[in-house]
Design a protein that fits this description.
By secondary structure, the chain is α+β, with helices and mostly antiparallel strands. Helix content is 34%, strand content 22%. The chain folds into 4 domains: 30 residues, no CATH class; 104 residues, OB fold (Dihydrolipoamide Acetyltransferase, E2P) (Beta Barrel); 77 residues, DNA polymerase, domain 1 (Orthogonal Bundle); 45 residues, no CATH class. A hairpin with a 3-residue loop joins strand 7 and strand 8. Helix 4 packs across helix 5. The protein is globular, with a radius of gyration of 24 Å.
Length: 301
């Protein structure tokens, strides 16, 4: 880690909300390996971003066995894959199954695909027998069937590189987004409920005990007994969670924490506090939210 040693310069450079500006990490070049592509699946994040993920033959990269690697977004995916031409089925981007890819662990942590290593050219006879994997983005969310929208990261680029495909449906009605949205709402910087991991939230959702954040605060005795009976819970874990919810309900949370718990895009912990300071009270915030038109809310998003 490279650091500025002079105190006066450190003071003038200051801090971001997460780290000092006067220190930066110097990382060694990432180690890479060649892995064969088995499939490309998609995963949906809390904000609705649909990210393509490469499923690979198990390959050791820097001492770790890698079977999945991120492809970032569909524009980047098509650029690094050097996709084939369209066919009679209307597939405009595709790649042969088992094609070799160069894979590395970014920052020695996150596996990512660097580029495609093209194998020998396929003859027309080989092409008809080859299994192909589509590189086209979906036109609807594969989990909730909501239409997708496109965000462009790089306005200077005329290509599709930088475009993020997003699920446009309500977060709590899209299964993978619902889990991560609830986890965010219950996190330490939001409602601060202890004892609720992502896996446990999924358990509660599967048992029809949790769908919206408010559900955890309105459970009756019979529902808490159902929580206790879930695999891996028990009486103590259930009681600890119940105590935590009762404590949060009795003391309440600040308006900044409440706004942060909503999981609004581009509103982090610090900016949520700034928004809260503009309204002053939860009543004023909810009144303004209730009087806002649907168009204003959509434009703000």
């Amino acid at each position: 880690v490279h650091k500025v040693t002079q105190a006066s310069i450190r003071s003038s450079m200051g801090y971001t909300t997460k780290s000092p500006k006067w220190a930066t990490a110097h990382k060694f070049p990432a180690q890479s390996s060649v892995a064969r592509l088995l499939d490309i699946i998609v995963q949906v994040g809390r904000t609705g971003a649909i990210t393509p993920v490469a499923i690979l033959e198990p390959t050791e990269v820097g001492g770790v066995t890698v079977q999945r690697a991120t492809l970032h977004n569909f524009g980047h995916l098509q650029e690094i894959m050097g996709f084939e031409e369209s066919d009679e089925n209307g597939v405009t981007a595709k790649i042969p199954k088992y094609e070799p890819l160069l894979v590395q662990r970014a920052g020695d942590v996150i596996p990512q695909v660097v580029r495609r290593i093209k194998s020998s050219q396929l003859t027309p006879e080989d092409s008809s027998e080859t299994e192909w994997i589509s590189l086209d983005p979906p036109d609807k969310c594969p989990f909730c069937s909501s239409p997708v929208t496109y965000d462009t990261i790089s306005q200077s680029s005329s290509s599709a590189v930088g475009q993020v495909v997003r699920c446009s449906g309500p977060p709590l009605l899209c299964p993978p987004r619902a889990v991560t949205s609830l986890k965010h709402a219950f996190s330490r910087d939001a409602m601060d409920l202890t004892g609720l991991s992502e896996a446990r939230i999924q358990q509660l959702m599967d048992a029809d005990l949790l769908k919206f954040p408010s559900d955890i605060f309105t459970m009756d005795n019979a529902q808490w007994e159902s929580v206790e009976a879930l695999s891996g819970w028990g009486k103590r874990s259930s009681q600890n969670l119940r105590d935590s919810t009762e404590q949060v309900a009795s003391r309440g949370i600040s308006l900044g924490r409440f706004i942060y718990s909503l999981g609004i895009r581009h509103l982090g912990k610090h900016t949520s506090e700034l928004v809260a300071s503009c309204y002053g009270s939860s009543g004023a915030f909810l009144k303004a939210l209730g009087s806002a038109s649907q168009q204003q809310i959509t434009e703000a998003d």
